[in-house]
Amino acid sequence: MKNIMRSLTAIAILTLISCGGKEEKKKDGIQIGQKPPATETPKEEPASNEKPSEMVDLTNKGIGPIKSLELPAEIDQAMAAKGMEVYKTKCMACHKPDKKFIGPAPTGIFERRTPEWIMNMILNPEDMTQNDPLAKALLVEFNGSPMANQNLTEEEARQVLEYFRTL
Q1: What's the burial of 162, exposed, middle or buried (CB within 10 Å: 0-12/13-18/19+)?
Q2: Total-model pTM
Q3: What residues in the chain have per-residue pLDDT under 50?
Q4: Domains and CATH numbers, the chain
């Protein structure tokens, strides 16, 4: 009787060991008779590798209060000086005049953007980054760092714009 009990116990233990605890790893390769796994469709690549900060768009006026703005041929030096002060206190934490930092450099901005777009970006950064395609692309380029709304008045933003003309 002892031999039968030992045999049954041994069989039960062997059965438990052989049935459980062993994990099969899924192979990534295709087995004969299997269909390949469905893959995601590749995302469309942009037409060019040009960065949004380098793109030229002189038609977009942006989203905000500034609909039209005529700049005089002559730079108003007094206004530019005030704009430089506003820029130093409110903008320089993120924007260096001539190099990329947390945000893009304003040097040469008028070669790429309209004055209206620049003013609207200064005055209305939240709506711009949510609704303007170029501002959205810039947000992505600059690692999702949104431009802080400094709550500048239109006059202060215009002074900053005049300062940008001197760069």
Answers
A1: buried
A2: 0.66
A3: 39-47
A4: 76-166 (1.10.760.10)
